[in-house]
Each structure stands twice: as structure tokens, then as C-alpha cells.
Amino acid sequence: METDNNVTKANVPAGEKRFTKRAAIGAAAVISALYAGMLLAQNIEGNTVNDSFSKAKRMLERSVYFDHRVTLYCRAPFDEKKNIKLPEGFKTPKHEKRAVRVEWEHVVPAENFGRFFVEWREGADVCVDNKGRSFKGRKCAEKANETFRYMQADMYNLFPAIGAVNALRSNYNFTMLSGVPNTFGTCEMKIDGRRAEPPEYARGEIARATLYMAAAYPQYRLSSQQRKLMESWNKLYPATEWECERADRIRALQKNENPYVVEACRAARLR
Known about the structure:
The chain is mainly alpha-helical. It has one domain. The chain has eleven helices and five strands; from the N terminus they run H-H-E-H-H-H-H-E-H-E-E-E-H-H-H-H. The strands form two sheets. The protein has a three-stranded mixed β-sheet with strand order 3-5-4, with no helix packed on it. Helix 5 crosses helix 6, helix 8 crosses helix 9 and helix 10 runs antiparallel to helix 11. The protein is globular and about 50 Å long. The N terminus is likely disordered.
């Protein structure tokens, strides 16, 4: 009598052969994908070159966006003096004065990664003003924690935005807002309660910036819900030539790369 260990190809029905082959191929694909994901996460390094937020903004203005002065959320053009041309039909419910200027938006808000630092939550010995009063929050984290400064200045997470949009988005997480009208008229950005939905054309860039920040800085922990959404957007919205060029320029300045953008650019055959 033949045992299981002695079964030959001749003993296996044709249907089972095909099933076994498909299962083997599928398992190999899953293992390969898991391994690639683990390798990608292990190799991601954050910004270790510049810890000045002000300097990061200057470098972005002069060396990255010098020939592509367009905001992320509303695709509003602006000039070298930050004068912005609002989209026709743009309107804002608040912060009218900030609507006429460009600001640099943290896609992952500084507060959302800052609150993981004890200096943000509780303060530090060095966080005392000239009147002897202790302070905490962003000001203290910036003064007392080098890692926070590097994260705050990471150019992969910084994008130009209309000031009013930046202000109203605040530190709200991104989500899908079914049935909610555009908040800014013709600009396809939606904010409702403490939630925000970006335009489709911005979702890929947002996803790859967010996933990079979560992988490069263990201090920042992305919720499972946000991670699923960002991973979905990363797959659904391919990289554009500008996203790839932007990443190339930042890599030259910051000396590290965002592998999520690198992979998206390769997948789109742009690099």
C-alpha cells in the first residue's frame, strides 16, 4: 500500500494538480509580497540632515517648487513672492486673510506626531520662558527634542497649501466624506467636523507621505484605520511625473528617500 509520502504525479488527479500548482503560485506571491513589505519598512530612514523647519521651507521654495508653484489641495498657482491666484469660484468660510497666501502644510500634522513626545505633553526642564513660566506643546518639543525637529522639517511631509485651507484642515485625519459638499467652492477639498477629505488627485501623494512618516519615525504611530485608508489610496492613485520629480529633488537635498514614492514611480514606469 502506498503511503502519502510515496504519492506520485500519476496518482494525483488532473484537477488536484492544477489546484496544487495555483495554490503554490499564490502562496509564493503572498510570501514575496510580505517579504517585500517587511524589507521596505526596515530600510526606511527619516530626515537626519536638517532640523530647521524654516530652512526646510526655504529649500522647498527655492530648490524644489521653483518651477512647479502649485498648491496640493486646490491646484492654485503662486509666484516666488507667495502671491497666490485662487481658483475661480474659491471661497472660504473662515480665515479670509490667510486665503491670499501660501503656507507649508504638514500632511501628517505636527500635532499628530508631536503628541507622542513627552516634551509636547508634559514639558521639559529647558522649557521655561524669561519670566520663569514653564511651557509645553510644540514650542517645547521644538526646543527640547532633536527628533521632533527633524520630523517637523522633513520635506517629504511638507506641501504648499492655501493658508485658509491649511488653517481649516488643522490636525484632522483624512477620510471619505460621502454626501458632503466642497468646503472651498470649486476647490475639491472637504472638511466636516473634525474630518477632511482631499481631492482625488492629491490622495496618492498624501498616502505615500503618510506611510513614509509612519515607517521612518517609530515615534509616530498610525492608527489601523488610517493605515488601511492610506494603503488603499497608495494602490488606487498612481504616481505622477511631478511627484517623482519632487521626490528626486528632495532626495538630493535631504539625502534620504521615500521608498513608497520610489516604488510608485517604478510601477508607473516613470523612473
